[in-house]
Amino acid sequence: MRKTIKFLLIAIGLLFFLVACESKPKQTEFSSPSIKTQEDKVNVDEKIKIGFSMDTLLEERWLKDRELFKQSVEALGADVEIMAAKGDDAVQIAQAETLINQGVDLLVIVPHNAEATAAIVSKAHLAGIKVIAYDRLVKNANIDLYVSFDNEKVGELQAEAITNLVPKGKYVYIGGAETDYNAHLFKKGVFNVLQPLINKGDISVVYDQWTKDWTPANAYENMLAALRANNNQIDAVIAANDATAGGVIRALAAQGLLGKIPVAGQDADLAAAQRIVEGTQTMTVYKPIKALSEEAANLAVKLAKGEEITTTHTMNNGKIEVPSLLLLPIAVDQSNINETIIADGFHSKEEIYQNVKN
User: Fold this and answer.
1) What is the pLDDT of residues 239-262, one digit of tens each?
2) Strand ranges inside 200-327, DSSP E
3) What mean pLDDT comes out for the span 29-42?
4) Which of 15, 89, 211, 250 is deepest in the core (most CB within 10 A)?
5) CATH homologous superfamily of 38-148+289-327
6) Does domain 151-287+331-352 bear CATH number 3.40.630.30?
7) Where would I find the Periplasmic binding protein domain in this sequence (predicted)?
8) Pairing of strands 169-174, 203-209
9) Terminal CA-to-CA distance of the chain, rounded, Å?
10) Within the chain, which residue ranges are assigned CATH 3.40.50.2300?
11) What pTM was computed for the model?
């Protein structure tokens, strides 16, 4: 009997132990939540997606930039979404917000207004998206990278070419859009060369005006005003790009001065190259856009992957020293147009010389 009771007590105790174990909550292992970094985001996506916010496609060169950048990004196995704002600040900001909300891995900007687009950089950074300024610098913003040409050098090349032809005389400077930081860099480069000659009294700048929105029509009106103010007594003109140079040349033609006054531009637009071989524009500055687009695409994809970028230059944008990659521009005139623009396939010989009779 005692053995039976002892056995029953042991069995009851064991039963209570098993019930207690069963009712005790099971311990579950939890990993601490991790913050999703940009690199983590890229690793789980099928493809990197780059957003490209452009100021405009109304000028020939920006059409080339769009296509070449798209090709370069896709060649690296990434996707690109491109939006152009037609020169409207509010539209560009809205389009950039759309790209950010779409979850692009990196944003590339060609700013219309160097200061207004600082808001885009702030919005992108709040979303954990890095930003590259393409060809034009964004002012007063913590931009992550700037990829362009040495735009101060562009202006120096223009002024050097014209002062070699006209070491003394009355000069007109037709600038670009005042809202474009590059326009200020071009002008700075021009006056780096002109100022010593001004100080010596060899030349005088008798007209100096910005061109709203870079439009040839506004440049035309500026040049007409310069001619009227000086009774057509002008010896040389430096225009901030080839589009504005086109407006200048149209104004000169209207006054019977076509081909009689040296005119400098830059961008190597097809129309400018044609004017150079025809003798109505003196020179342009060629900026190999293919090299620019390839470098920008390569750096964009690397940054999107979280890879570190090292640069040898910086540009002050009013807030920080922006890490910068600056490519070298090339002065082009009749003497080297075949070895530069044509040899690179930027424009064909047939296109450039189509209006020149053999």
Assistant:
1) 999 999 999 999 999 999 999 999
2) 203-209, 236-239, 263-264, 284-286, 313-316, 321-327
3) 35
4) 211
5) Response regulator (3.40.50.2300)
6) no
7) 50-308
8) parallel
9) 131
10) 38-148+289-327, 151-287+331-352
11) 0.79
